[in-house]
Amino acid sequence: MSFSDLFDSEFKQRNKGHFSAIVRVALADGIVSAEEKNFLDKLATKLEIAPSEYEEILENPSIHPINPPYLYSQRLERLYDLARMVHVDHQLGDKQEVVLKKIAVGLGFTPSNVNYIIAKAMSLVDKKVDFDTFAYEMQNMHK
């Protein structure tokens, strides 16, 4: 196995774990709504989840370990990507902030601050800022 294959494999495993965690959030209330299903479909494509893996994860999301990002910068990067997907597509409708809050807690953000974090993230995404600006603003929002 080459070094690039190893990196590719690790990247795909991380994406499967990330997708699995989001499926768990969607299934928290026992059902996946049509809006959530559309969001999961689009997210699976972006994360390069194969159709067979997608079905497997929907049936049993616990088969892949949850790998929350260790570094704050990685959490911000995932939040940025998810916030942009949710905001641009509006597939979750009124549920977008609720789902993002659950995902943010799953990513490791503090539950007591999650409302403020999501409001700030959505505000920045609405302004179409790049990731560097997003990260800077999120890291300095209390200053």
UniProtKB/TrEMBL annotation:
<dbReference type="InterPro" id="IPR029024">
    <property type="entry name" value="TerB-like"/>
</dbReference>
<protein>
    <submittedName>
        <fullName>Fructose 1,6-bisphosphatase</fullName>
    </submittedName>
</protein>
